């Protein structure tokens, strides 16, 4: 109708209003999806700090850390120098600090591979019945030098080793049952796994059998050692 003023309200032909960059209530600005960018809270800031790499240790701090690691390891049982070296490397201690700390422990006697080897041989031979060969293998795995291993194992002479093998055979025989020939082979195998040579193992098994009965003694004597185990 002529003379009527055009409407400029929010009708169908009204131009869209420009979206406000402020969130309702004057809060932080909204992103394109309409979500307000919330500031980081204390928990988020702590998470960010935890994700940051730790500051490198000073030489003094690294030395203190290395000594703490060593003392915790030694509190469990005696350790060889090689075992402590491995533990320190796994925890990121530098080579220079490792050498410094372990050299000092050597000087004051906190670590002593020769004493460790002697104690290990005595404990494992008389406690577990292990032969010199098995003991040497265990010490090598713990990083003990060969000359120290040889010296420690040499304290067990052949007579002592044979006596220990016989005692072990007697005890083991009490728990074995079945066909005598099968029992004999199992007994020799058990001694061989303890590190005894074929000759020592067969000899101990024969004597243990002979002590049990005359029939078992005859059986043991009739068995060919080469058919039982290899030296």
From TrEMBL:
Ranges of residues in domain RecX third three-helical: 159-200
Annotated ranges, domain RecX first three-helical: 66-104
Domain RecX second three-helical: 112-152
InterPro entries linked: RecX_HTH_1st, RecX_HTH_2nd, RecX_HTH_3rd, Regulatory_RecX, WH-like_DNA-bd_sf
Keywords assigned: Cytoplasm
A GO term from the CC aspect: cytoplasm
Pfam families: RecX_HTH1, RecX_HTH2, RecX_HTH3
Highest taxon listed in the record's lineage: Bacteria
GO biological processes: regulation of DNA repair
Start and end residues of each stretch annotated as Disordered: 1-65
Task performed by this protein: Modulates RecA activity.
Name under which the protein is recorded: Regulatory protein RecX
Species of provenance: Allocatelliglobosispora scoriae
């Amino acid at each position: 109708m002529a003379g009527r003023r055009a409407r400029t309200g929010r009708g169908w032909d009204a131009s869209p209003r420009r979206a406000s960059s402020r969130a309702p209530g004057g809060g932080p600005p909204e992103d394109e999806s309409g979500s307000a960018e919330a500031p980081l809270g204390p928990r988020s800031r702590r998470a960010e700090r935890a994700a940051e790499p730790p500051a490198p240790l000073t030489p003094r701090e690294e030395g203190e850390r290395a000594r703490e690691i060593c003392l915790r390891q030694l509190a469990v049982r005696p350790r060889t120098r090689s075992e402590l070296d491995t533990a320190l490397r796994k925890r990121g201690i530098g080579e220079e600090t490792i050498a410094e700390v372990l050299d000092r422990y050597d000087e004051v006697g906190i670590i002593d591979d020769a004493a460790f080897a002697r104690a290990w041989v005595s404990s494992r031979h008389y406690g577990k019945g292990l032969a010199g060969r098995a003991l040497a293998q265990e010490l090598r795995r713990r990083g003990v030098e060969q000359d120290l291993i040889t010296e420690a194992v040499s304290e067990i002479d052949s007579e002592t080793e044979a006596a220990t093998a016989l005692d072990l055979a007697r005890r083991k025989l009490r728990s074995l049952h079945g066909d005598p020939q099968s029992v004999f082979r199992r007994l020799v195998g058990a001694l061989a796994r303890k590190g005894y040579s074929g000759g020592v193992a067969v000899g101990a098994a024969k004597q243990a059998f002979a002590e049990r009965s005359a029939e078992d003694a005859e059986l043991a004597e009739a068995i060919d050692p080469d058919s039982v185990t290899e030296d």
